[in-house]
Specification:
The structure holds two protein chains of two kinds. Chain A is mainly beta. Helices cover 0% and strands 50% of the residues of chain A. Chain A is built from no helices and eleven strands. In chain A, the strands form two sheets. In chain A, strands 2, 4, 5, 6, 9, 10 and 11 form a seven-stranded mixed beta sheet that branches. In chain A, strands 1-3-8-7 form a four-stranded antiparallel beta sheet, with no helix packed on it. Chain B is mostly beta strands. Chain B is built from no helices and twelve strands. In chain B, the strands form three sheets. In chain B, strands 2, 5, 6, 10, 11 and 12 form a six-stranded mixed beta sheet that branches. Chain B has a four-stranded antiparallel beta sheet with strand order 3-9-8-7, with no helix packed on it. Chain B has a two-stranded antiparallel ribbon with strand order 1-4. The N and C termini of chain B lie far apart (41 Å). The chains are: A mainly beta, B mainly beta. At the A-B interface, β5 of A face β6 and β11 of B.
Chain lengths: 114, 114
Amino acid sequence: ETGVTQSPTHLIKTRGQQVTLRCSSQSGHNTVSWYQQALGQGPQFIFQYYREEENGRGNFPPRFSGLQFPNYSSELNVNALELDDSALYLCASSGLAGPYNEQFFGPGTRLTVL
Amino acid sequence: AQSVTQLDSQVPVFEEAPVELRCNYSSSVSVYLFWYVQYPNQGLQLLLKYLSGSTLVKGINGFEAEFNKSQTSFHLRKPSVHISDTAEYFCAVSDPPLAQKLVFGQGTRLTINP
């Protein structure tokens, strides 16, 4: 069984640029959640996708957007990058968005904004 | 809104000593509670979870936690730690039954000294 994978591992961008991060779900999972983990902080929920639709969003501005594809892989897009966007971005996949399903986390993408 | 407070940002202990990592949450209604571990340059791994039932929950790697509703606490314990337990530990809460979004604490860095 393949776990959650994320690409790229590391990324360096400059302020104002746009970035796309990618996530492949664990086999059999149809729900993907994205989290931002700033240095020295706990992860913060960005949003969740279920069957290609946004299924809940945290307190993040609209320049954070996402997509989920028919194979349940997902992208996180961030426009107009700011210095504070520097963080580890974690993707987690889970089963049906019904009664509790464990979220399995990928290794993350570390984004540095200069 | 849910919030989680991890009372210690760093906990140093000697190998084979017992350890307790403290976690308090804000909600007075029913919740799901979790402890995750994060090793350097890795994603999050679930140690244990409380969904319902027995208030003493056993997890992987010899860890256990006790749910205390009256004190809104979910402290993590291990009777004898090993060097390999050195990591960052996160307490998290979510709302039943969907557990759509995890709200994390700031994390506790556990350092094991020989």
